[in-house]
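Z., the sequence and structure:
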Amino acid sequence: MLLMIMRMMMMLMMMMMMMMMMMMMMMMMMMMMMMMMMMMMMVVMMMMMMMMMMMMMMMMMMMMMMMMMMMMMMMMMTTTTTTTKTTTTTTTTTTTTTTMMMMMMMMMMMMMMMMMMMMMMMMMMMMMMMMMMMMMMMIMMMMVMVMMMMMVRRRRRRRRRRRILYRYPVSTSY
């Protein structure tokens, strides 16, 4: 009887140990997953930041271009007016109007360009986001698969061990 009790105790201990091991493994896996997720998030954030910077740069460039154009136009207007003041007044008006028209056209063009750039950037951002999401999903799936495999393996091992433990006492008890 004592032997039997001892054996039972041993079995319990073994079970407890196994459970502890399982728990530890699970915890480790969870930690790993968390780390991976964090890393991925960091990458995404970095990408986003980069994109934002690019957008800002583009905007700045466009603004500068616009300013330059405006300055140029203004200069042109002044020159035309000053040069043609000696002659008739009709020419001045015509030149100013044309320059104005030109300026408007340039402005429109610039605006269009800016819009296009913005659209492109937005598209890029969306694409990046989609890609990241896909990657995340893939990694998650892989993790789950690994977990399943590990679980199956553990179960098999457990069963085998249990069987062996069960068999031996019966054969050597009496």
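The longest helix spans residues 89-172. The mean pLDDT is 70.

Let me know what you think.
H.
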